Amino acid sequence: MNCVKTRTSLFGRGLTAVAISLLLVGCATAPEPESTSAEQSPEAFNAVLPAGPVTQNPYSQGAPPSVSRTISRDFQAALTAMDKQRWSQARPILQAIVAQAPELTAPWLNLGIVWTQLDEPGQAQAAFERALAANPLNVDAYNHLAALQRRQGEFAAAEQLYQDALAVWPHSVASHKNLGILYDLYTGRWPRALLHYQAAQYIIEQTQGQPDPTLAGWIIDLQRRIAAGGPL
Fold it and tell me: pTM of the prediction?
C-alpha cells in the first residue's frame, strides 16, 4: 500500500497532496483474522456510513480565522518549506506562529507533522493535541494523531481516534482508509476493514465520479483473503 501524504491550510479549506506525512501505510504482517464465516453483502458498508448524501468536511465550512498579514505570510513560508521537505526550516517558523496565535489549529497541526518527520513523537503528539484543543472539528489532526499512535503500537488508541474523526465527519475518505488499514494489517479484523475500504470507495465514487484504482485493488485482495478464510 502506498503512502498518501497531506497537509492542511491555515484556513481549513481542504488538503493538498505533498510529501509531508505517512497517513496511509501498510508495513505490518497481517495477523490472524477474526472469524469471517458470515458472507458480506455488497451494501454492507452502509453500516459505517450515515443515511443521506455525502457531506462536506465541517472543518472547512467554518468562517476563516482573522490573522495578521505577517502570520499569513509566515505560514505560507512554512508550507513552502514543508513542500520541499525542509523540516528543520519549517519548524521554527511554525513555533513562532503558535507562540503568537495559539488559538489557530492549522499551525499546530503542521507543527505536529514537522515534529513527526523530525522523529520527535512526543513533540508531535503534543502539537496534534493542541490542534484538536484549538478546533475539535480538525479531522486531519485526529488522523495524524491516530497514525502516530499506530506507529507506536497503540492500536486501541489509534482506533478510537479514527472513530472520533468519523464522528466529526462520517465521509472522511482518509479516516475510512486508515481505519481499514488498522483493521486489515494490524489487528486482523478483516470484515471490518472491508467495510471501511468499501465506504471510502463509495465516497470517492460519489464525489469524483469514478473509483480509486488502488483502493479497488485493496478491496479485491481483501475479499479474496476473506473468502480463503485466512492470511495468504
Answer: 0.84
